[in-house]
Amino acid sequence: MICGNLRASVGTPSSEVPRRELDFRDERGGFSLILKRNCSISPAGLLCVFAALAFVVLTIGAGFAAAGAWLVLPFAGLEVLLLGVAFFLYARHAGDYERIELHSGKLTVEVAEAQRTARYEIDPRRVTVCLEKAMGYGARVLLRGLKQKDLELGRHLDAATRVAFAAELKKRLRI
Q: Which domains are present in the chain?
């Protein structure tokens, strides 16, 4: 675990690993940053794909049922049901994000996960940005010094970008 002085060493970008840039938008001495999941399809697009797949599977199942193979239809229905559950679980987290803003000497962190949104207003002078090494996860960025438990940030970033994010956040909170 590293608290206090943090340095991010970002070497030359490799052709194998794409480099992810953090877009800290400056706002009169503060900043605003939104970290989102890398979502390949929107929930509305996912609904269209599910409807098309369900139609095809149930049409094939109905065709087999009409030909006398009635057991195909319940399994086709079960397949559509399980696919619907999987798509629903994916769509619940497709809009997850973390919004981190510093303005007027106040750090505001908004974390949206599934249907819950939590908002934290923090005095940036009273928190410490810590980079905690975790097995199999890379590193965790924690805000320490809150009244509640530690607040983890950067969950939607890859490990290398999380390290750079921690260094940049620490630098911007101390200005």
A: 25-38+97-173 (2.30.29), 43-93 (no CATH)
The tokens describing 149, both together, are: 């438990």
Q: What angle do CA 26, 41, 140 make, to 5 degrees?
A: 50
Q: For the segment 65-114, what is each residue's pLDDT rounded down to a tens digit? A: 999 999 999 999 999 999 999 988 888 888 889 999 988 888 899 999 88
Rounded to 5°, angle at Cα 172 from 19 and 154? 45
The dihedral built from the CA positions of residue 30, 36, 41 and 46, taken in this order, carries a sign that is negative
Task: Copy the structure tokens of residue 35.
Answer: 């970290």
DSSP state of 28: T
Structure tokens at 120: 């934290």
